[in-house]
Each structure stands twice: as C-alpha cells, then as structure tokens.
Design a protein that fits this description.
This protein is about 25% helix and about 35% strand. The model has no long low-confidence stretch (mean pLDDT about 95). The chain has two domains: about 230 residues, P-loop containing nucleotide triphosphate hydrolases (Rossmann fold, 3-Layer(aba) Sandwich), CATH 3.40.50.300; about 110 residues, Nucleic acid-binding proteins (OB fold (Dihydrolipoamide Acetyltransferase, E2P), Beta Barrel), CATH 2.40.50.140. Strand 9 and strand 10 form a beta hairpin. The protein is α+β, with helices and mostly antiparallel strands. The strands form five sheets. Strands 6-7-8-3-9-10 form a six-stranded mixed sheet, with helices on both faces. It has a five-stranded antiparallel sheet with strand order 15-19-16-17-18, with no helix packed on it. The protein has a four-stranded antiparallel sheet with strand order 2-1-4-5, covered by helices on one side. The structure holds adenosine-5'-triphosphate.
C-alpha cells in the first residue's frame, strides 16, 4: 500500500481558476519525489494541498491508506520548509531548531539530545549559539531544515528551499539535502523549477505544466524516454534540439539535409506523409563525422561556447538552428561546415499536432 496517495486531485481557487487538474500519484515510504515545472504550473498548490494548507477541491488524498482530505496540517505529521527561511531573528540557532519541541513541552534533556543530533547532521554544531543574522544564506537554510527534521515527522515537504541561495551554495546544499535524506530516510516531496535539482535529488520526478501532470518517472526514464516535446525540452541542459517540419516524400528537411524517416519509422512513415512532425535529438547525443548508422548531417558553425570540459556549438542550416555539445578538445572553428551524426537510438520523433512521442 502506498504511504501517500493522491487520487484525481483538483484545485479550483475561489476566483474560479483551475490550478491543478486530475493529479494522480502514489508515493512509497522513504521516497524522494520532486515536482518540477515552470512558474505557475501548480507545483506549490499541490504541495500545499498535501500539507493541509490548501483545501482540495475534489479528489481524494490518502495517508497510509486512510482518507486525509479533512485532516489539519498537524494531524498529517508533515514538516514544511519554505523558500524564505522565516527564522526567529532574536533567537539563537539552538533555540530556533528547538522551538517546535519547546512549544510541545518536550523535556529539556530530550531537546538537548535532539538539537545536538540535528546540528550534527546539518553541520551546525559550531553555530548553535549564533543569531541568524550572523549566518550565511546556506547556514540559515540549514537551520530552517533543522527545525523541520527535528520533529521526526513522517513527511518532509520542501518548496523551492534553495532559491534564495547563490549558484555555489545551491550545489552544496543540494548535496546536503541528499545526505540528510539518506540519513533520515524521511519521505520527501520537493518542489523546484530547476531541472538539475530535480534530476540530482529525485527517486522520481513529476513534471507539470499548466496544472497538468506531463510525466512521472525516474530521472533516467524522463531523460531517455520523454513522453512529449515539453518533457524532452524541459529535462536536459542545453535542451533537446527540435527540428519541426512537414513530412514530404517520407523525409524531413534540416537545411540542405534530408532526414529519411523510414529509417526510424519503417512502413509507418506513410501515416505521417504531409503531416507535421518533430525530429528531436539531444546536443550531447551527437558524434562528430559521418556514419552509416544513424543520421549524418552537415551544417554551418555559427558560434562556440567553451565551457571547460565541453563546448556548446551553435549550428544553422538553411533557416534551422540547433546546438551540439562536443568535447572541448574537438571545438570546431566558426563559419565553417561541420559534419556530425546522430545515432539512431538517440533520435526521437514526436507527433507535430499532439506533441506526444511516437513510439518506435
Ligand atoms: P511558482 O514556481 O511560480 O511558485 P507554481 O508551479 O508553484 O509556480 P502555484 O503557486 O501552484 O504555481 O500556482 C499555480 C497557479 O494558480 C498560478 O497560475 C497561480 O497564479 C494560481 N494561483 C495561486 N494561488 C492562487 C489563489 N489564491 N487564487 C487564484 N489563483 C491562484
């Protein structure tokens, strides 16, 4: 039985706005699930419904198999970490972490032991006497997480907890959050708009757009088996290249290159004659030079970006554009043609109308 189950959950705000449509998900105990999607897609709304901070308009929310729609936040045994740390500025780190337990009247000795243990997990032992203003952003966020994990609740909810940190701190905290999860084993639901955070932290990712779930899967599944153009373009950096066009004589055109779709679709290519199709390939999936296996293309190099271990190569052919990722030792010169191939298994085809992947 699932630990948490959301069955056909919908949220319609009082102003009539339908923010979440038929959300279905089952979460196992100890799982780390990430909701990801662009701003306004309904991630926070869904998380807040799980927390009990927002009414569920319709659908059923189950905890341990029991209906929990009407339970208050306390009864649900969830702890939430928000984007803003909301620490008490006049209290020390120790008192901030201890606050929830102090309110509950827990014994001093027990509090001391749990604060010390929490501080150890979070690397805050040396900062327990400090006030929040004497901490870095990353340390403050750790205190906020400490306040949540000290309560030993079953479910840990995090809404963009790293968004106030700079890029370096985000990487460090991401690692720490993964470690805390390993150590505590708490079921975690984490909201972010950052696909890298989602990919690195999640056991499973829920990709959302405009209030609808687009796909649920492991990071591996989302990267290698995207369900549609949106997921394919959202997961991966730089995003997947999409060449759109009308199928003519069984082929799509990319500048001067003709992509013979029968090689991927076989006989089924006939079903798409005259229709819009999207040919997708990831920048990092290409190999330099021509090859019989896969699709060989030639294009013009417009610009290169050396990033250290690899280089982004911006190419055009006719009016079409794409990005290739190559080893930086192979960085090509600009304004000259480049020939590369896409291995057959790295080619994705999507229906131009529905934008759903065409399974082959
Ligand atoms: P972000 O990353 O920007 O926080 P999100 O994916 O978390 O985005 P939500 O905050 O869940 O998005 O909002 C989903 C949609 O619901 C948005 O279009 C938002 O404007 C709308 N919305 C949120 N709160 C309310 C409200 N109280 N009344 C009406 N509409 C709301």
């Amino acid at each position: 039985m699932a630990y948490i189950a959301l069955k056909n959950i919908n949220k319609i705000y009082p102003n009539g706005f339908h923010a979440v449509h038929n959300f279905n998900l089952e979460i196992a105990k100890g799982e780390f699930v990430v909701f990801v999607g662009p701003s306004g897609c309904g991630k926070s709304t869904t998380l807040r419904m799980i927390a009990g901070l927002e009414d569920i308009s319709n659908g059923e929310f189950l905890l341990n198999g029991k209906r929990a729609n009407e339970m208050g936040p306390r009864e649900r045994e969830v702890a939430m970490v928000f984007q803003s740390y909301a620490l008490y500025p006049q209290m020390t780190v120790y008192d901030n972490i201890a606050f929830g337990l102090t309110l509950q009247g827990v014994d001093e000795d027990v509090i001391e032991e749990r604060v010390q243990n929490t501080a150890r997990i979070l690397g805050l032992t040396d900062y327990l006497d400090r006030l929040p203003r004497a901490l870095s952003g990353g340390q403050r966020q750790r205190v906020a997480i400490g306040r949540a994990i000290i309560r030993k609740v079953g479910i840990f909810l995090m809404d963009e907890p790293l968004s106030n940190l700079d890029a370096k701190q985000r990487v460090t905290m991401r690692y720490e959050i993964a470690q805390i999860h390993q150590e505590t084993g708490a079921t975690t639901i984490y909201v972010t708009h950052d696909q890298t955070e989602a990919m690195t932290l999640a056991d499973r990712i829920v990709v959302m757009k405009d209030g609808y779930v687009q796909q649920i899967g492991t990071p591996y599944e989302l990267y290698f088996q995207p369900a549609n153009v949106f997921v394919a373009g959202f997961i991966g950096e730089p995003p997947m290249n999409f060449l759109r066009g009308k199928v003519q004589n069984g082929a799509l055109r990319f500048g001067d290159n003709l992509l013979d779709l029968s090689r991927k679709l076989g006989e089924r290519v006939k079903d798409y004659e005259g229709k819009e199709l999207v040919f997708g390939f990831r920048p990092e999936a290409i190999r330099l030079g021509a090859a019989e296996e896969g699709y060989t293309l030639t294009a013009q190099v417009e610009l290169t970006e050396m990033l250290g271990d690899n280089t982004n190569v911006y190419i055009t052919s006719g009016g079409d554009q794409a990005i290739l990722k190559v080893d930086s030792h192979d960085t090509p010169e600009t304004d000259v043609p480049i020939t590369f191939h896409i291995p057959m298994e790295s080619v994705y085809l999507f229906d131009g109308e529905t934008e759903n992947v065409i399974s082959v």
